Amino acid sequence: MAKIHPEEPTSSPCTFYRRETYTLWMKSLVLHSNGCTVYDSNGDIVYRVDNYDQKGRREVNLMDLSGRVLCTIHKRLLGFGHWDVYRCSGSNSKSQDKPWFQVKRCYKIMKGQLTCQIIMECQKYCVETIDGKKTFRIVDIDGDIVAHAEQKYSSSGIVLGNDVLKLEVEGGIDHSLIMAFVTVFGLISGRM
């Protein structure tokens, strides 16, 4: 007999520390809303972002498949190009008054590349575009690449669309943190 309610996973599917390849579909699963859906290498939905209002709204939530809010991304009103990201507790609310990390939008004068500086306590990261808005990478303070996104192709070499990306995340880092970085970068670059 088929199960009506699937079994609850014993561990959180949103915190991985091994190397993983994700598929980012820069569309929401909800009709007529903006957002992003993230699939793991097995084709299962792992993360999602749904904006029910308009593109680039002031507050956006990164959720897991079941709709549990993992973090809330808040755009500062008077800080142009500044975002605060708050980690959420089980009650889907900000678990702290102090942001989990902060993001500042920057532009490299050469070639007009869009970059973001991410400050998280004593750690710093940078998200930078490589080829327009399609390809980007996340680099830590030591210059090591922790994640890299590029256009996704089918196994036969066909481009899957401008809104479908392949994201490779290195091991040893919380993948929900990387997805929060990607979500903020999507808001900054106007993709969500």
UniProtKB/TrEMBL annotation:
Organism taxonomic ancestry: Eukaryota, Viridiplantae, Streptophyta, Embryophyta, Tracheophyta
UniProt cross-references to Pfam families, sorted A to Z: LOR (PF04525)
Protein name: Protein LURP-one-related 4
Family statement: Belongs to the LOR family.
